Amino acid sequence: AMNMHEELVSVMCRLPTEILCHIFIHCLPHTSYTLPNSKSPPMLLTRICRHWRDVATDMPSLWCRLSMNINRATGRNWRQAVFCYDSWLKRTRGRPLSLEIMCIKND
């Protein structure tokens, strides 16, 4: 079973860039905005293998819809949140950005 898994991963990592681009677009959530999350696309796609990371980070269209949670960015891990948002925005490479800013007031 382990050999079959390794073979499947190897085949998936060797898919041509053009096919991966189409697959990646269809992997995006169907919502209009994306919260940065390492366990969901597009960030998850960068964790599969080096080839997938290179393709995903070179596709500005994957990164042009962003939801920012201001409360999360100003919490204890604000530096990590700022780094994450900065990296995300750089990947848009100047393309138009659709941005949602959430600020939930805690009473």
TrEMBL record:
InterPro entries found in the cross-reference section: F-box-like_dom_sf, F-box_dom
UniProt-recorded name of the protein: F-box domain-containing protein
High-level lineage: Eukaryota, Fungi, Dikarya, Basidiomycota, Agaricomycotina
Entries under Pfam families matching the protein: F-box-like (PF12937)
All copies of domain F-box, residue ranges: 12-67
